[in-house]
Amino acid sequence: MKILYKNVIVLICIVFHIYLFGNEIKDEIYKSIGARASGIGGAFSSISDDYSAFFWNPAGIVNMNKINASIFFDSVFTGKQNVYGLNYTQPVLSDMGISITYLKTIFNDSSFKNDFLYLSFATYLHEEKYTAFGINLKLLNFSMSNFELNGFTTAFDVGFLFFPDFFEKKFKFSLVASDLDAKIKWSNGNNEKIPVSYRAGMCYEINNSARAALDIVMTNLDNENKNLKFGFSLGGEKYFLNDYIGNFGLRTGLFYMENFNLSVGLSYARKEFVLNYVFIPGFSNLGQTHKLDFTYFIGEDIRKVIKQEIIPEIKETNLVLLKQTLKNMEFNLSHKYISPNNDGLYDTIEFNLNNNPLKISGGKWKIAIADKQNKIVKEINGIENIQPKIIWDGKDVNGRIVSDGDYSVTYSFYIGENILWEKTRIINVDTKPPVFKLSVLPKIFAPIENSKYKRMQINVDFKDKDINLWNMIVLNEKNNIIRKMSGEGVIDKFYWNGDDALGNKIVDGKYKIKLSVNDFAGNVFEQIESIIIDTNIANFNYVPDKRIFDLGKDKINFISNKKDINQIKKINIQILDNNNKLLKTIDNLTTLNDIVSWNGTNEKNEYVRKGNAYIFKILIEQINNIEIEKQYIIQTQPPTFEGIGIQLILAAIDFEKNSFDIPVSEYGYLNQAAEAVNKYAKNYFLILKGYAIDFENSEKNLQLSINRVKSVYDYLVNIKKLDPNNIYIIGYGDGNLIEGVNKDVVLKSGTRVEVELLTK
Questions:
Q1: Is the pTM above the cut of 0.90?
Q2: Which end of the chain, N or C, is less packed with Cβ atoms under 10 Å?
Q3: CA gap 329, 421 in Å, rounded
């Protein structure tokens, strides 16, 4: 029985471990090595230029120019799995590199532990360094101490990196195969095949501080091509370079394999070290993941020293050997763009040679600059002695500045008619400034809460698209800079919320928006737009001459106070019932309308209901785009009832201060009133009279009295099912806004609603 028990436990452990490997690719972004690589979602096989190249693509070890040592720590799934590791990477000569890595994985929710050792080697496959190859030998040990179960295997990873000589070498490509020939031999005699995974990647170097990358992943889970899993990684990173305080990096990435995973990373680097961190949210209830690594660089740049080694004079007469000797020579540009307009920016361009001999006996060299029609506009020639740096001022053979456009620069070395070495680069001559049209909306801006525009929109219409940098500044009347914004590349619009550099709202006054734009050739174009910051709120208003009127016999007049009329752009009026249903609009009024009258009709010219409350809403838009809303409560008198037999107060409902919710203790009185009406009254009317002396502000009191009346009305109609056609309302507030009200009655009634019954 004990033997059976042990075998079952061992079987469960093996199945569990197979499950772990089966899900390895699904959780790859969590379990992968390297905070920087994980920060761009694992799209790293074509980059592979730090210590973690051993994991992503061993061919990338050739990218390491300095000896370095790294330590790394991963806390996966909120500490359910911890990874600790050490790495040492050593460049060898000018075209090789080696690496050794040890990492330990501890599964805290179980007794599983893994110990992995990576021995890595990489080399360029030819002298032109267009292709690199790398290989890992992995020694993998697995253990589960609780059940005395151990497993061991060796495995191989192979990877390729491709550096094609097009698009200014901005692209790199990769192919990687991992866990080749990996079969775990367990201590209980069982064997387990580790799935093989394949990865293809591409990286684009946007500039020397930014890049984007994509990886496509495939894993063969059953090793028979019947259970293939596909996924992809997409990411990018941006460095902010500074020689004094160090370089800061930001990156983000997206990984998909059955589920989407997102990652965000940070870096801080100096010449001697780099520190990376990544955060991966806990999707699919897996818990958060944090990764941290530190790399210290030792000694000088080995490859740079080799690359700059001076090659002595070449006297070889064998052309084949001469060509072979010159294979490692490189032709580079100081920059792609030249703007020979004597403004001090990119007026000249440098043609640089690296790995060049000092002299070729009997040899000649030539730099030919040609336009798009392959017409030579300038030639620079030399014999034997080689100049590693040639400066061109953008002028043709006649000393005139060449026309704007693309030009090919071909650097050639030859003996007689035999070309020994030749490379071509493309440059762009650009002397025209990057013209654009600048506009802002609005030009009079009020950065406050009730402004129509919460932020100013700055529009830029570029005629050219080769934009490098842009810089926007806000200047006050003394030409002091109070706000700066900047960015890279073409932008059609951006926003400013009216704050200064410290985040404070700026004071009213006249300002200038100045936008400066640089193209890649250093040409500059500027435009300025004048704006006004104006947060003044006008005191203009319409005031009603009364608050209650007799429908059909009278009307309400709203009279202008004529204040600040020069600040007003537009006036609209809306009339709504007490349920906020729109009844009528009066649009496009101006300050010339001294009086606006309402006779109690709606849009169809029909009279509204008597004995009801209405909202008169005044919408004022100022010239500075501040929107003001003022509203007043207007009421219509209840109808005149003839032949009244009984008139009495059925109920008086007392409300709590500042509230229009019916107190629980008052519902009994309302129920009794409703029952009395239903039982005894046939031809009846109810008038609900509301009072409020809660506030010092009469407008608030009037509104509160209407709200209290409406609460009682809703209860009687919706709950007690009384006929709404027989119920009328009127709010008195504190009596100050309603003519003919007995103040003593108001003070006595205080915070109540009276239900008055009238019967014939």
A1: no
A2: N
A3: 9
